[in-house]
Amino acid sequence: MAKNGFKVFDSDMHIMEPPDLWERYIDPAFRDQAPRGRTSENVRDLGTIFPKVPKDTRRTGGTPHRGRNYDKNQDIYRSHAERGWTGHVQLEAMDTEGIDTAVLFPTRGLGILTFPDQDPRFAAAMARAYNDWLHDFCAADPNRLLGAGMISVYNLEDALSETRRVAEDYGFRSVFLRSNIINGINWYDAHYEPLWNLLEELNLPVGFHVASASRSRQAAEHFEPNFGIRRVYSQPFEQMMGLGAFLCGGTLERHPKMRVAFLEANCSWLPWLLWRMDEGYEREGDVFMPDLKMAPSDYFKR
Amino acid sequence: MAKNGFKVFDSDMHIMEPPDLWERYIDPAFRDQAPRGRTSENVRDLGTIFPKVPKDTRRTGGTPHRGRNYDKNQDIYRSHAERGWTGHVQLEAMDTEGIDTAVLFPTRGLGILTFPDQDPRFAAAMARAYNDWLHDFCAADPNRLLGAGMISVYNLEDALSETRRVAEDYGFRSVFLRSNIINGINWYDAHYEPLWNLLEELNLPVGFHVASASRSRQAAEHFEPNFGIRRVYSQPFEQMMGLGAFLCGGTLERHPKMRVAFLEANCSWLPWLLWRMDEGYEREGDVFMPDLKMAPSDYFKR
Question: Does domain B9-54+61-177 have CATH number 3.20.20.140?
């Protein structure tokens, strides 16, 4: 499918998890609390329900199941939904769009590791279940469907062991994290150094991927119940702050071989943000960015 | 001082309030709780202490009184500080910089109306005291020093009466607000309509001005104690969200004569942000931006 000799690569394609993924794949000890995918007359219903967790009363909005684009989307996706969003359906969609190879991110699963008070063992079990399912999903064509492994940082040991497992046992080419902080520990904290060391050792990129909602603090959440205005800001702002943690916080200085992607959040803000970081570095970098040996934007050029 | 026939106008110049401003100018009923300006060996110490409010334990950072730029700033500002940052000192600084006329914003006073549980009567008294002092300050040259009035929105009636007072009694050319929400009510809420109506009636612009810290929720506060990384984001993010409230929330649709400024937060992010808002409008504007008659960026061109 290469175009003029170039292969087309999608660094951020989403799969639609079956609603019973976690009930089927999770360690049976956690099955009763496993998230259930919500289904409704909306073929793109992406909701997720935790049977033992109260509904998030802070949110009254969410992606609308109405509006002028609703019917159009129902028509586009109805056949895919009826066929269960399988790996073969995914490959068909990639053919339609002219994509050779894609890194795959979750949809329902994007929000399940954002609870600030999550039990670390349950979180790790949800991540393992997702990765086991994703490995089966990618079997439809492992050369075109590349898994991005879900890892839980509620207990860093879980993140380390799961990163190694998906890379070595499943051949996944990356792992992913949400950039908004769920455990009070920012990404440049020494706490995470073992994870960045391991990613360098395994030569494995990490992709940061946010969603427009979160059970933990997230930029623009105060726009609720107006989910549409919240969505203008939530993903780009969290990714901009994640980039700052890695650049200004010295993570990329300490890990020159590390590769990090910040996904699905636009990028035309980047020239402004790098200038803004450089301005901060010039003003007070010796106090607040002590690990940096050069201006933040220079790491981006490296 | 006009340059090539043009006058030089600064839309966002800061004054440095004397530490005893509020003790001297506030309604005596509130004098015991009035904020005191902190002073120290740092001639630019901008701290403010509320004698009856505990120190903000969330913050361990703040503008550093150290680092490679500290001594340079001490030299630049020592003479101004020793002469009490008066109106005449301000005019001298404007002469040095070649500025004909400036709209004046506070420094110590920028943070005093950000407490989420503030007594509305005390808040209104602090605003009145600041405006009374500012009117005296501007008397050094009322044609070059233009006050931006401080208004308290803890009780909207206070904001309305003080807006009218500073415009009609003092000839102030604008009022200002912080864009980060301090009372849980977003700027596009119907609650604020009387204020926007009054600003239109008085033909008075409102300037939104943030600072790098706040006692209420603010973007990037989770970077504390690293105040330097927090500062990269805090002001621009709050102003970007304020702009979204006015554009996407329909305030500028409902108030075509209203003029709003978003200050001290850069602007090279604007093309991206307008595109991002337009994308949201295209996707779900009929659901979440129901008041808009055109895309958000079109209001900017109006």
Answer: yes
Q: Of the candidates A67, A228, A288, which has its C-beta nearest B226's C-beta?
A: A288
Which residues does residue B146 pair with via DSSP β-bridges, in sequence order? B103
Q: Could you identify the residue written with the tokens 């910089």?
A: B97
What is the dotted CATH code of the domain comprising A85-301? 3.20.20.140
Is the bond preceding residue A120 a cis peptide, omega within 30 degrees? no
Q: Is a pLDDT exceeding 90 seen at residue B90?
A: yes
Q: Do B268 and A275 touch (CB under 8 A)?
A: yes
- Domain map of chain A by residue range? 85-301
Question: Does pLDDT of A31 surpass 70?
Answer: yes
Residue of B nearest to A186 (CA): B223
Helices (H), B98-203: 120-138, 156-168, 193-202
| CB neighbour list of residue A276: distance below 8 Å, 6 or more residues apart | B232, B236, B266
Q: Are A199 and A205 in contact (CB under 8 A)?
A: yes
Residue B232 and residue B61 in contact, taking contact as beta carbons nearer than 8 Å: no
The candidate with the shortest Cα–Cα distance to B41, out of B14, B15, B66, B68, is: B66
pLDDT tens-digit profile of A38-70? 999 999 998 899 998 887 766 666 777 888 889
Residue B58 has pLDDT above 80, yes or no: no
